[in-house]
Sequence to fold (302 residues):
Amino acid sequence: DKPRASLTQEASNTRAANYSCLWNCVSGIGCWPGLPSSPLEHIFSVETFPIWRLHVIWSKKNGEDLRTHLIQRFASSVVFLSLMLGTEIGVLFSPSTPANDVRIKMKEKDYGSLEYWAGIVLCLAVLWTISALIATFTAWAVTSVVSGTNAHLIFRSTLGIYAAQLPSNLILISIYFFFLWIVLFYFKLMPLLFAIMIVSLGTYMLFHIISTYSALARIIIHTGAMGEEQILPMSDQESRDPSQIMESLVEKTARARSLNIPVSKQYRTRYQQSISNLNVIDVSDEEEKEEEKEAYDEEKNA
Fold:
């Protein structure tokens, strides 16, 4: 049973890698098997996944840097959501003819009309954007009062990770609702052929953007780019062209996946050496010894 299960898993991974490679070629970002690592990452950016937030939280050795990063993220998101909400409310209550038709169809409960469903999606978009705005603003306010000394402890807890991730998830859904009601208005306002062409182009661009940054996010995660350790020696960086650098990063990504170091341990190891040797080299014991030595020296000086 085990060999059969292993072969099934390997075949599934191969299919996912081939799918990603095919889509990457179509979308123009290059054929890199396993980047992104699953079809889902062509629809939802890795930046919105819990694994990304875990790496952000564990890679920052300085608690003040972690707190600053989260505050800046929430602050920029509040501005972005405010612009989205203003646009949606402006369209929903606009005196224009298309918006008025939408409100009339909703009032008449004309379930079979395009205008009715455009209005329903627009209302959902407004409610979801308000929820995302409230969550992001609250997260900003709560995060800003945490001291740098205790930032790691708070945000590495289960609730801390979830609270840091929740605004990103709500923002992602708000963006898809925003995109969907615009698509429905296109079909209302334009001839069918032109609407199909523009929506197809917009959908392609959306997936292209998500695929590109999902692939980049996977490379950042698996190569340890968030950490302080240098991925490639400076001599290699200067002597290689962009395609050779990309090949090196993809190779390191594949080796890191096979090594499968837990996030909580990744930034407490000699990560680049561990990837090269396919063997985890833990430095936590050395760090503890250094801390003990520093404490002893301080007591001696006192």
In short: The two ends are 64 Å apart (CA to CA). Residues 158-189 form the longest helix (32 residues). Residues 98 and 189 are 8 Å apart (CA to CA). The mean pLDDT is 81.
